[in-house]
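Hi R.,

Here's the chain you asked about this morning:
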Amino acid sequence: MKNCIGIILFVLIGIISSCSSYYTFEDFTSKQSNFPKRSVESFELGYSIVVPNSWRLMEKQHQGKVLIETFADRPNSSGSFSFLSIAKFKGNSNDLDKEIENLQKSQKLPDGLEHVALEKTKHLKYKSYYRHVKSDKENPEKADLITFMLKANEDSTFFTIMICAPQGDELLNDMNMLMNCAKQFAIK
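And here is the predicted structure, written out as tokens:
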């Protein structure tokens, strides 16, 4: 099976741009963000989450066994924007630890991205892992991406929650906001 996280990263990274970053996962989770938000629920994928109030469902994709919903606002003056994307896909295992191990063995990061971290996390209310990648110095599209992976209710089925923000002056604030959104994720 093609690596779903890699596919999602590759498809979505091309739309982000700005400058460089040295922030960690801990930096992005270090504070609560107060922002106007609203709750959204996907009956098709079986989840609920909060998103910034002005954000809308920008895209729904069905790629074989992968269903993806992406929320975003309009691009800023430089054409870059932050987004939050939820994917649900059928894996090769029923166990999250084994699925992460399988993905690590089969996954090659797309050119222009560098690996920062892959670890278990307690940021979500479910057992999950996060993977942090960012644009490398050769990549003109500068962004930080964090993807959470967790087990869905169905056998061998998993969710990913990808948050992405362009690197620049607002990166820390944008990622804090998106981390707060991800923390509200609930399986229905």
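One quick note: Strands lie at 37-42, 47-52, 56-63, 66-72, 83-90, 113-121, 128-135, 143-151, 157-166, 186-187.

Cheers,
M.
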